[in-house]
Structures are given as C-alpha cells and as structure tokens.
Specification:
The protein is mainly alpha-helical. It has one domain. It contains twelve helices and no strands. Helix 3 crosses helix 9 and helix 6 packs antiparallel against helix 12. The longest helix has 32 residues. The relative contact order is 0.20. InterPro entries: UppP.
Length: 271
C-alpha cells in the first residue's frame, strides 16, 4: 500500500511539473510546494532535473519544425551566405548569447542554490509574489518585433532574465516571456524565443546531471515512481504548452498573475 501511495504522489508531482513548466507560474516552485505537502525528501534539484528532461522532450516535439528550419538555414547561411537564411542564423546566435548568463550562474552558484532553496517553501512563496507582479506588468502588451527584428541587446536581457529564474518560484518561462514582451516582441516571437532558449539550457543540465542521477541509490530505490513521474511530466507538458500558446494569443495572462499571488500568500501563511 505504501508503494502504491508513493507512485500516486510521484504521478501527481510529474503532472504538476508538466503543467507548470510551460506556463508562467514556476514549475520548480510548485515541485517544492508539493514535495513539502507529500513529505518527500530528495537531495538538491535531482528530481526537478529528471522531470525537466521529460518536459524538454515534449517542447522539442512541439517546436521540432522550428528547430529543423533553424539548423538547416543556419548551415545554409554559413556555407552559402544565403541572404534568405540570415534571419534564422542570427536567431541562433541570439539564442546562444541568451544561454550564456544562466550557464555562468549554473556553474558558479548552481549547487549552492539547489541546497539553499530547493527545500524552502517560504522562499517559494515570496518568489511567487515576484512572478505575479512580473506577469501583471505584461498582461496587456502587444509587441511588434518579429524573429528577424531581434538584437544582441534583446538576447542579453532575456538571458539575464532566465538566469534570475534559477531561483525556485521565479518562473523561467514567465521571466523570459516578461522580458521579451517588455522588449517589444510579438507574443509568438516571445514564446518561440523563450522555449527554444529552454532547450540548450535543459539539454546541458540533463547531459551533466541525469547520468549520475539515474545511477544513484536514491533514484534506484524509487525507480518506478520516477518513471511514472517522467511519463506524466512529458504528457502534461505537451498539452499544457499547446494550451498556453492559445492563452498567449488571446492575451489572458492576468489570470496567471492572480494565481501566483494567491498561491504565494497561502504558502507564506501555511507552509
């Protein structure tokens, strides 16, 4: 019976990760909250990294055509200097630039942040309030910048926003989309840049951490629950991102701000 309850708990954690990863309410913050509610203890950010890999696969599937186009046109511009491919080549360069800040933060402070913040729901409560305020600021924005209008400055600012979001409770998608919208990007461009930016960061973390994680005694002892969480996160991320794309198109971001405000206050009071 205890094993069954554990599987159900990890199933819920996987669904929570999957639903909250694409939308601006902080997946890492919600994992901390639900682990606290379920009394599940894991070291550092190992579980988050594992289920994030599931979300990564779902996001790659959704943006597969964009990824293939960017790679194809990137090589085409390098080899033949095709002017029609220049915009996609520059987009790739901006993604690389925007990846640098979070890479630096991860290398220098990743372990410290994981140990200090991953098990503190009160910190998550306050950072959710920050996320609520940030999302509120862009609730009515309609930008004009398309993919070909981005600049190095845009890439640096969005990259810095993503670096800030290593703190649980600060939504990664929220931080990057807020920064993108404040810089004048269209909703579609802001979404594309945000989630394509997620791919190299998550992929790098996965390559570095997951092989060691799956060999650990802690992971092996909870192998089935972890696999259940992984599958749940993959499915939930896929459908949540599709849903969020429609939400962005309709401009209903204020409801995510309300949600983060309410949850943040409840966490501060009760956890």
């Amino acid at each position: 019976m205890e094993k069954f309850i554990t599987i159900i708990q990890f199933l819920i954690l996987g669904i929570v990760q999957g639903v909250t990863e694409p939308i601006p309410i902080s997946s890492s913050g919600h994992i901390v909250i639900f682990r606290e509610l379920f009394g599940i203890e894991t070291k550092g950010l190992s579980f988050e990294i594992f289920v994030n890999f599931a979300s990564l696969l779902a996001i790659i599937i959704i943006y597969w055509k964009d990824i293939v186009r960017l790679i194809k046109n990137g090589f085409l511009y390098i080899v033949k200097k095709d002017p029609d491919a220049k915009s996609d080549f520059q987009f790739i360069i901006y993604l690389i630039i925007a990846t640098i800040p979070v890479g630096v933060v991860g290398v220098l402070f990743g372990d410290a942040l994981g140990e200090a913040l991953s098990d503190d729901p009160v910190v998550v409560g306050y950072t959710l309030l920050i996320t609520a305020a940030a999302v509120w600021t862009i609730r009515n924005l309609r930008g004009r910048k398309a993919d070909g209008d981005l600049t190095t400055k845009d890439a640096v600012i969005v990259g810095l926003a993503q670096a800030i979001a290593v703190t649980p409770g600060i939504s990664r998608s929220g931080a990057t989309i807020v920064a993108s919208m404040l810089l004048g990007m269209k909703q579609e461009t802001a979404l594309r840049f945000s989630f394509l930016l997620y791919i190299p960061v998550s992929l790098g973390t996965t390559i570095l951490e997951v092989p060691e994680l799956v060999e650990s005694a802690e992971f092996q002892s909870l192998l089935i629950p972890n696999i259940v969480a992984f599958i749940a996160a993959f499915i939930a991320t896929y459908f949540a991102l599709k849903w969020f794309m429609n939400i962005m198109a309709r401009g209903n971001l204020k409801y995510f701000s309300y949600y983060c405000l309410v949850v943040g206050i409840l966490v501060i009071i009760f956890l």
